[in-house]
Amino acid sequence: MAAPLAALVLLLALGRPALSGAQATEGAAAAPHRRFEYKYSFKGPHLVQADGTVPFWVHTGNAIPSADQIRITTSLKSQKGSVWTKNKSIFEYWEVEVTFRVTGRGRIGADGLAVWFTEEQGLDGPVFGAADKWNGVGIFFDSFDNDGKKNNPGVIVVGNNGKLLYDHQNDGSTQALASCQRDFRNKPYPVRVKITYYQKTLMVLINNGFTPDKEDYEFCAKVEDMVLPSQGYFGISAATGGLADDHDVLSFLTFQLTEPGKETPTPDAEIPQKDKEKYQEEFEHFQQELDKKKEEFQREHPDVQGQPADDAFETVSDRELRQIFEGQNRIHLEIKQLNRQLDMILDEQRKYVSAVTEEIAKRGAGFPDQQGQQVSQQEIETVVKTQEEVIRQVKEIRSSVTDALRSISGAQHPGSAGVYETTQHFNDIKEHLHIVKRDIEHLVQRNTPSTEKQKCPELPPFPSCLSTVHFFIFVAVQTVLFIGYVMYRSQQEAAAKKFF
Ligand SMILES: [Ca+2]
Ligand SMILES: [Ca+2]
Q1: Separation of CA 315 and ligand 1 centre (Å)
Q2: Locate the L-type lectin-like domain: which residues (predicted)?
């Protein structure tokens, strides 16, 4: 019972067979209808059953299935293993997505890994752990450079009609239908391969395991007019030699491809109603078990719950980074504005140059004098206006640069913005005063003719109402009166002294 359950979980985990098909048909008329085939696929985290088998697959040799991957060979000498679908596919065109890792301590590894689509299962043999003389196609990820041409690790596509013996000593170079040189060993992320067989064209795309991006595929090889058996087994195999790598397959997903308009019934219709109910029941049971396990885990590890709360707070370095980022954005905006304004200026300048050129051309052509003058007057006015406009825009730019500088320096020294503004203010006042002073000087200079020296106006004649004789008589009388008063005072003081 675990086999259909695991398949159902896999199906639900992927949850996209119908959807991807719909998207494909919507996207382009020629795009094939794509349907996930769970009976020809495996994927963690519940890959293996309790008895150690993989649902719908058989494994042979040294292959070891575990919960989230199948180790086809361990990194020991002369190992080989393979995994094959239990059933033949019943569809003409297909796509497989294989995720694997080839890891080893050595700078060079061996032998390699192969993805198969063959008429019969190649359970054991000398070709990367699988049988020779296959009828179908093998896509080989060959690690070891047997022929010494320095072209390994590499990927080659070899087709066979069931009669050919694989030329292992030459890395199949004489038999390859297509190939590409890729190093797939010891990559930070799993290597992903997408093999598509559609309308007699086989295409191999590869994600080299440098990024975690699942859709980051690049082209590797293409074989046109390829005839493959209409029904066959999917398989994956690997082998080691004197040198050895771990060959781990994380997932093998198969999709059926159908030409638009030739879609087969949906998978729901294929599964009998009775089976569907059974699967549903088992899935629900599984879901309950999972919830129970989750609760138990949370009860046993209460400290794990607290971890996500850390994300709510911003650390000091995060804040600094954010502030730097915002500052950079502001500078970026200012520079963009400057750029726009410079473009405008350039435009204006171009207009100006073209106007001048036109003017010169007109003069050269020899227009009638009066008309020419009229036109040139107009032209000159436009030129002057343009120049004024240019000057105005340059000023705008200057002020915007000043603003930018101020905002940058404000960001660097948040406290000094006020001081800067005050200084600027004083400078403005100083400049204004200078202007006023200059204006006054200018006015003064304009009002006085520069050649004449300034003279004082002549005083009007003083009226003579007092003669010199009268003046002297007046002075003499005053003197006599003063002497008399002084003598009188001294006599009075002497009389007063006699009484005491
Ligand atoms: Ca080889
Ligand atoms: Ca080679």
Answers
A1: 52
A2: 34-257
Residue 178 belongs to a domain: yes
Q: What is the pLDDT of residues 164-193, one digit of tens each?
A: 999 999 999 999 999 999 999 999 999 999
Tell me: do 390 and 263 sit in the same domain: no
Report the separation in Å between the CA atom of 144 and the middle of ligand 1, taken as the mean of its atom positions.
Answer: 4
Q: Based on the fold, state whether residues 208 and 333 are members of the same structural domain.
A: no
Q: Is residue 301 part of a domain?
A: no
Shared-domain flag, residues 348 and 232: no
Please determine, for residue 452, whether its predicted confidence score (pLDDT) is greater than 50.
no
- Return the ligand number nearest the Cα of 141: 1
Domain that holds residue 414: 323-366+375-445
**Out of 106-115, 224-233, 375-384, least confident range:** 375-384
Ligand 1 centroid from CA 224, angstroms = 25
Ligand 1 centroid to Cα of residue 52, in Å, is: 31
Number of structural domains the chain divides into: 2
**Count of beta carbons in the 10 Å neighbourhood of residue 149:** 11
Averaged confidence pLDDT in the chain: 81
- Do 107 and 124 touch, CB atoms closer than 8 A? no
Residue 457 inside a domain? The answer is: no
Kind and range of the H or E element at 105? none
Q: How far is the CA of 143 from the centre of ligand 2 (A)?
A: 9
pLDDT for residue 359 is more than 90: no
d(CA 170, ligand 2 centre) in Å: 6
Last residue of a domain, one of 270, 293, 308: 270
- 139 and 238 together in one domain: yes
- Ligand (nearest to CA of 112): 1
More confident residue, 368 or 327: 327
- Going from the Cα of 111 to the center of ligand 1, the distance in angstroms, rounded, reads 6
